[in-house]
Amino acid sequence: MSTPLAPVAMPRFITDDEVAGALSFGAVCAAIEQAFESLAHGRAAIKPRLRSECAGAKLSSMGALWPDAKLAGEKVYTTVGGRFGFVFNLFDLEAGTPLAVMQADELTRVRTAALTALAVSRGAAATRKLAVFGAGVQGRSHVEALVRALPFDRVDVVDVSDVSAWCARASRQFEVGIRQCGTLAALHEADVVVTVTRSKQPLFDGELLKPGAFVAAVGTSLPDGRELDDATLRRAGQIVVEWKPQSCVEAGEIVLGRTAGAIDDARVVDLVELFSGRARWRTRDDEIVVFKSVGVGLTDLAAASLVWRELGAAAS
Predict the structure, then answer these.
(1) Could you report the per-residue pLDDT of 250-268, keeping only the tens digit for each?
(2) Rounded to whole angstroms, how far apart are CA atoms 294 and 303?
């Protein structure tokens, strides 16, 4: 007589509202740092993004394994009419079982800005003035994450739409001077410049950047588009990416910059090299540093681990 199989617990479904309630920029920033420490020492692995396209719609996926946290996961999402729909599948590496399916719009929003905040905190020479290009969902998230994490006393926002009312509200909320202005005014004396747009063309002349500026380009992960021009890339003493196997084929700044001769491989380093101690964020305070982010599955998993730590533990 055969032994009946033990019942398998159904994965928990976690909504975006629950994800939002479980995450903060600071906690996600710390989790991402821990995850990349693990990756740098061979205790995590990244599954690169895979995209499929048909009839104008895209289906993409990317993931990671993080044995130090006993978790693995994969984000799957559609792109239809320029809109994204994200879910994240979380797995227990000890039992080899699925734990949860999460709506992942909030997961993506928070982990993206948290990673930029981590990069700025490590690589910026000064954090007095912040310039942000793009005031959509990610642009606003970046303003919040950066002013909460670092002592900026002024934020200039550049956007094609009138976002002055939001700037005024954010200024009161975060108790930092935030205004909408033009490109020249925003770049003047900016210590940190963040681009979070859907532009496929460079947003400004890199010759306008002050010596020592830290530039984070976040808006695109496609090899045929870029927010930064050749002047910015040529002036950069260091160009930091998340993970070379994925970043160097996806990031337009890298792909197109190499083609134009604006980038040489000796100046491109990734977070694995930085967190393993094989490279430094900068060598001089007057050196321009570029951080190019395309998004990798390990940052999603780091954020998802916090959601599960709070909501999964509460349910058990």
Answers:
(1) 999 999 999 999 999 999 9
(2) 16
